[in-house]
């Protein structure tokens, strides 16, 4: 591996404290905060990350009496250009076969091109097996290697609208669908909660991009229109009477969480039945009518403490449940379309199952019903992975949840998520033991429960809102000050990667390569004037 092929772009001026050095870079060197540079101290080679930089000029400063006449001169730009350099502070993140800090006079170079066979030496890993190439280190053509063996330690992808977050998720999905193992293309099975239909093309027009997969399905809540569409149905016997009672009453009262007395009443009635009966009781018109009659009869028993008014409210909630979930969505079935058997098929076929919550695929679905579905998927996935693990057969599944704040909200986010929060906390804390990788995607990480956020061990940070920076730093264990300041101004298409999956083992700035088949960095937006003139 030859890291000193490129010509020098600067020199080290002085050592700082610990692992830091200060250098001067040529005016022609285009650099970014967080970018990596090669530092050569005779035969000792190090990698340094740019922590900060500023442009300086010997003849132009705030204190100079020359400022006014210079700025009035037409030749000011030529003068500044000819004498401006970049002063940069670099932090040493890797040393190659030495332990020293570069001395003043050491040469600074851009990262060179590196052959695939030299990547293990560059990253200090035994080989490429078990790693995937991800993007390019900023200012270079060198891919960042992500360690697949660390994916079960969970990850988060965060960025504001237009930062490239969704494009990055599509790019990561592509990489996890084309894993090179020897001469074979393989993939990790993935369940994806698709909030806005951003991945439906992978089921059809771009399915050929996912070469390692032999099974791809899109689950929808309407009549299937295309061959790989499947109407989603779920099995309510996985839920406790308490879970279903809270869900049904919250459908009536919205995200306030429902009425406690009515939830207790319905929980009592449901607890009189075996959970295997729930699909009939709550999934059929006959069962619901029988259940409403039973609610009425229970209210007449004064010893139980329930009254007629509460009974009528519970019956009203059951009617709303029937209209929204049973009649409109046909969601409940004892023969669910997504089961543990489906997950076994996914494993053997390295499948991709997207659950499409977009208006096209699931018209009229509300947040509460989405939570019921996410809770169901979480339960069958956890049950499947624990069962196979204890039977001696290891399985791996990646579970990606977009708009994660709707399912694991922080105290600052006005969503009641009792149905999903506990089970997702279990997945975050216990799932890794059984082969589950949880990947949370959100525009607002500050609206995600901090405890769950702390369970994530790899972070992909795009540009985020100012209000989120302190929260993210607290929950994730922090970034260097230079990169934390850069979080609010990252260019679209760039991402800071930090955590166990990164082979650099230090935060790095990565550029995601453009591929038209993956869409646009910032999403496809129709031009307003074109719509106005054609409508």
What is the strand and helix layout of this fold?
Elements: E1 8-15, E2 20-25, E3 36-41, E4 44-57, H1 67-71, H2 76-83, E5 84-96, E6 107-109, H3 119-123, E7 131-134, E8 136-137, E9 144-147, E10 155-158, H4 165-176, E11 179-181, E12 184-186, E13 190-194, E14 216-220, E15 229-231, H5 241-253, H6 260-271, H7 278-283, H8 285-299, H9 308-328, H10 340-349, E16 352-356, H11 367-390, E17 397-402, H12 418-430, E18 436-442, H13 450-455, E19 458-461, H14 466-476, H15 481-486, E20 494-499, E21 508-511, H16 528-534
Parallel strand pairs: 10-18, 10-19, 13-16, 13-17, 14-15, 14-16, 17-18
Antiparallel strand pairs: 1-2, 1-6, 2-5, 3-4, 3-6, 4-5, 7-9, 8-21, 11-12, 19-20, 20-21
Helix pairs in contact: 5-6, 5-9, 6-9, 8-9, 11-12
Provide a concise account of the structure shown.
With 535 residues, this protein is of the alpha/beta class. It contains 16 helices and 21 strands.
